[in-house]
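Q: For a teaching session next week I want to show students how multiple molecules come together into a single three-dimensional assembly. I've collected the sequence lines for a complex. Could you give me the predicted structure tokens for the whole thing so I can convert them for display?
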Amino acid sequence: MTQVSMTVNGKAASGDVENRTLLSAFLRETLGMTGTHVGCDTSQCGACVVHVNGEAVKSCTMLALEAEGAEVSTIEGQAAADGSLNAIQQAFQDHHGLQCGFCTPGMVMSASALLKENPKPTEAEIRAYLEGNLCRCTGYHNIVKAIMAASGQDVSAIAAE
Amino acid sequence: MPKDSGIGASPKRREDLRFLTGTGNYTDDINVNGQAYVHFLRSDVAHGRINGLDTAAAAAMPGVIRIFTGADFEGVGGLPCGWQVTDRHGQPMQEPAHPVLAQGKVRHVGDPIAAVVAETAEQARDAAEAIDVDLEELPAVIDMKAAIEEGATKVHDDLTSNLCYDWGFVEENREAVDKAFADAAHVTTLELVNNRLVANPMEPRVAVGDYNRATDDSTLYTTSQNPHVIRLLMGAFVLGIPEHKLRVVAPDVGGGFGSKIFHYAEEAFCTFAAKAINRAVKWTSSRSEAFISDAHGRDHVTKIELALDADHNFTALRTDTLANMGAYLSTFAPSVPTWLHGTLMAGNYKTPLIYVNVKAVFTNTVAVDAYRGAGRPEATFQLERVIDKAARELNVDPIELRRKNFITEFPYATPVAVEYDTGDYNATMDKLIEVADLAGFDARKAESEKNGKLRGLGVNCYIEACGIAPSNLVGQLGARAGLYESATVRVNATGGLVVMTGSHSHGQGHETSFPQVIAEMIGIDESMVEIVHGDTANAPMGMGTYGSRSLAVGGSAMVRATEKIINKAKKIAAHLLEASDADIELKDGQFSVAGTDKSVAWGDVTLAAYVPHNYPLEDIEPGLEETAFYDPANFTYPAGAYACEVEVDPDTGKVTIERFAAADDFGNIVNPMIVDGQVHGGLGQGIGQALLEGAVYDENGQLLSASFMDYAMPRADDVPFYTVDHSCQTPCTHNPLGVKGCGEAGAIGSPPAVVNAVVDALRSAGKDITHIDMPLSPSRVWAAMNQ
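A: Of course. Below is the structure for the complete assembly, covering every listed component.
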């Protein structure tokens, strides 16, 4: 076992891990931060997306030890201190962009990374960017709509939500 | 003007706050003090005999607590099947044993052979690799036609063959149907495959078994759509634990789509092992395990024939289907190709004579059971495809051919045993033509052609039977359970309500929509109502959520219990107001005496029920809590019309969905936002089936599409924005809310629209193509174009 230390959502976090421990397992099992989900074992589904030093990363594809000293941001750190949702989270609720909620942490973290690099993405750009995030409930309609709304675009003309 | 609360409003979902902040409580988030972890050693061959199993080396590995094999489960019940189908000769289906861990033989890749329980999941996995299995590979039967040929290798040695049942429906109609075909002016025939699918909810299955030796209580936390059903099946049939000693909790569940209805071996194992080692035992499925252990869906091969007279009236329908059961009978598997499929073969049409034959077949593949729609997508796909083909053969408009044969008078008793209570199929077709802008299709097609693309239009109808179902009816049809739902409504002293429902929400938003109903009934704010579900310790009983039944059946139970509450509250109010309870009216949370200005508030009445100082104690008990069980009088029959426009790239065969419109009749709507979301999700899955998804076995029984690398799940750029309309509403006539159910419609109605559209695109380009089997991958479409 090796000790690993990082900053998670602005707070120092450390724990003993095996060399093979994935960052997703470190977050969920060592730190008990179960907001990050694991939906596959081939890095396809994207439920486990977190930000590492500002970049979107599938935490199931990164060893915990690789995150030594990193700034990690997870779904648990997205709302404000008073609990109010950030603009992306709020748009997902406003536009029914989630159903069972399992893919949602990854969707929100991916959307956040997208809007950082492309503040007003088109529908096609959003759909292309989400190629690494699977959702089985929504048919993606309201997820795409929510991300457009979160980026300040008028979505009132898009069919029913 | 949209309402802002109550029935018909779209309040924001209250469950979203926890899901959006990472504070949900999914089964894998649950950890019990001192828990151990299990890893299952699964068969890597499709059919084999276990000649030896040496666990000594594995047992000596670090952290291993105990290794279980089939021998530990001798004397323990097998996994039960919940539905017994009777074949066309009056004989019961063949029903093989389904052990928790393999007993001597394995019958599909993924069949569990042994289970290693260890201190950590990694130690359990490492040790499982050290188990020495002497597995003699046997010939496997994968293809259904080959499986029922004389002399085929048997999946189960103790059965007479691989034929589970040969079902005829309605058997008495058979000769009349054959005669109608002999007399027909035109017969259209189509052979097709309804491709095998994997439900793949994003949350893999998880089970945590816990045992308290001091009280002899067992608890199972599991990813289930119906915790009470698991308690019943596992307690009564597998482990012999009575209900009062077994609690099943299904907390936040990350999607189900049918695949989390069934009782699985891993649930029974964790519950059994927790008692055996006196520690909690946790299993978390990997996605790779899910592909080879979750029940699959669909997998039918069908020949359908439609007979028409000279005026293009449908005169008879005849179908011949092979339905794959896999290696074992999953919980509701036998009902899917029969009672959930044959009974829908009338569709939206007044075909007077129908005969459906289904042969259910055992193969060395993972079990097949209900997946979103369950039997109804298979019925809709073949019917709507054959009608489209008939229209082309007769050179008539496919919409007009449908309209000519629509059922227009209700109630309507079909020749396949069900009675549609209400509907208006012309209305949904008219609405579809409007919202899909079919008038603009030719212009869009011309634009596509300019861009070198072939554009096609596919239109179809669907009907489904939801709200399953009257218990006495399904009992006659072979169900081994009742299919009512229960609700307990507890009113607290200060007026808030808690509803404990047997329905289960795993994405459907019951915590938001169910309170809308109660708020409307009482005239209070929705925030005063809390929904509790997913725990057998709370709701009295529950049959759970599947078949689009939650609001129609579970919601009706809640309405009935709330009516009892209101009746009792009126008696209390009458006492407080010194009036007759017949004169008490409830509106906007106030009880008033009709024709007077005397009134008392909801909260004052509820307080009086718990502080009964001034109270009619001689007539009624204190307290305000009621339970109702609701057993539906009939199925509900949502129906609608769908339109898909595709572009096909003639160079590559790639299909893109350019537009998709749905006009549904779901009866009354409680929360339009949630209904739209349910349709969107169904469309995504239906388009996935039509274009992308397929569970493919090779001839040796290896699942080739066994990960998200190989099984093509629909992604955001595979689908368009959908146009969804549910303004056509013919309310259900027999449940108190007039609701029909909306969860499966999208998945049922969309595959034929996609295939009809692709065939249309290719034919309009001069290709003589009548059908392509799903999924319509670029290679299949290209091959069809270039054959």
